[in-house]
Amino acid sequence: MLLPMLTDQALITIVVAIAVVLVVGTTGLVVTRRRRRELPAATKPQVEAPETTETTETTEPRVGEDAEEPRDTPTRTLEDTELPETTTTLEKPESAQGRLVRLRARLARSQGSLGKGLLALLSRDKLDEEAWEDIETTLITADVGVAPTQELVEHLRTRMRVEGVGAAQAREILREELVNLVDPSMDRSLKASRKDGQPAVILMVGVNGTGKTTTVGRLARVLIAEDKTVVLGAADTFRAAAADQLQTWGERVGARTVRGPEGGDPASIAFDAVKEGIEEEADVVLVDTAGRLHTKTGLMDELGKVKRVIEKTAEVDEVLLVIDATTGQNGLTQARVFAEVINVTGLVLTKLDGTAKGGIVIAVQRELGVPVKLVGLGEGPDDLAPFEPEQFVDALLD
Ligand SMILES: Nc1nc2c(ncn2[C@@H]2O[C@H](COP(=O)(O)OP(=O)(O)OP(=O)(O)O)[C@@H](O)[C@H]2O)c(=O)[nH]1
């Protein structure tokens, strides 16, 4: 009704006005939408904490975030902080050559007084009874033992009489006689190779504290350096920390340690270790034992059982008796007891660095008729050396 009343001009004006309103409205809507799309960061909620500190530094604070950490935020303690996991890296042993040179020097340092004392006495112008008595005393004080001392003095007396005296000669004669006494003819090789498709089994025995566990660890290190695979058996279940100590050695050198519960049956652990060695086709299984010396029967029961149980699956190739060189006659008495309860195939004399009485090497070999195969010359991981009679005597006299 209204339309007929409007003029054409008015109608056109209204249509144009409506069109303008529509265009302006639509454009505004589009621009607003575009703006919204262009500002995502401002509207995106920050849910996740930044992963690294770098991000934190570059991220600007946003609405709703605190300008600084609230004071009631608990302080992070050391315990809360997760430390990176430590991975044990295998140690590389010192080269065999370097080790032996160093250990020879150490042996000479510790035993020098014995050799030098003897040489000084033998080089006297007049070798009278008093001089020979002094020589005897020096040898006995150095733990050489009575019988070997008498034997040595007798040989020296004869040779010095026949071959004459003089410092150079005295040294040569003494060297020869000492080497004979230490007996270079004994087989000192260690049976540490697979045979008949089975690993070699080495049992370490000895009184507490003589250095059995340390010797097992150091021997494993030497064998692994020779590219052998080694399994350790923690059959010393008597001392709580012994298995841990052995396992630590195993981790250091790269040998698996078979262990059981504290106070468990040593024979069953020894059996499991050997079984593991057979399954893994290892070259050597080294079994550490407790060697409590309460009673001879107790010791016999324990070691006898360990050996018997191992022998169900494998031969025991070596029984190494570890003796602390600093214990002198006491060490000899212990050695005797062990030799009575188990067939000892070799001796390990530890702590030779801690005594000038290297004569124990001669005494203990004589006593048991078993060769010293290894010597310990310090607490370090590379302080174990094969025993070589000539080098030992040279170290005494240097
Ligand atoms: N100076 C010196 N110390 C040594 C030597 N061998 C071992 N020791 C030390 O002697 C101590 C006892 O050694 P262990 O290996 O624990 O003795 P163990 O016979 O296994 O003792 P138990 O486990 O109690 O039976 C340790 O502090 C070793 O570092 C050596 O050749 N020289």
Automatic annotation (TrEMBL):
This is Signal recognition particle receptor FtsY. GO terms for molecular function: GTP binding; GTPase activity; signal recognition particle binding. Its main location: membrane. GTP binds at residues 206-213, 288-292, 350-353. It is a peripheral membrane protein. The keyword Transmembrane applies. PROSITE patterns: SRP54 (PS00300). Part of the signal recognition particle protein translocation system, which is composed of SRP and FtsY. One of its GO terms (cellular component) is cytoplasm. GO terms for biological process: SRP-dependent cotranslational protein targeting to membrane. HAMAP family: FtsY. The gene is ftsY. Belongs to the GTP-binding SRP family. FtsY subfamily. SMART domains: AAA, SRP54, SRP54_N. It catalyses: GTP + H2O = GDP + phosphate + H(+). Residues 40-97 are annotated as: Disordered. Its EC number is 3.6.5.4. Keywords: Cell membrane, Cytoplasm, GTP-binding, Hydrolase, Membrane, Nucleotide-binding, Receptor, Transmembrane, Transmembrane helix. Residues 371-384 form the SRP54-type proteins GTP-binding domain. SUPFAM superfamilies: Domain of the SRP/SRP receptor G-proteins, P-loop containing nucleoside triphosphate hydrolases. It is an enzyme of class 3 (hydrolase). It comes from Kribbella jejuensis. Residues 59-79 have a biased composition (Basic and acidic residues). The chain crosses the membrane at residues 12-31. Involved in targeting and insertion of nascent membrane proteins into the cytoplasmic membrane. Acts as a receptor for the complex formed by the signal recognition particle (SRP) and the ribosome-nascent chain (RNC). It is found in: Cell membrane; Cytoplasm. InterPro entries: AAA+_ATPase, P-loop_NTPase, Signal_recog_particl_SRP54_hlx, SR_rcpt_FtsY, SRP/SRP_N, SRP54_GTPase_dom, SRP54_N_sf.
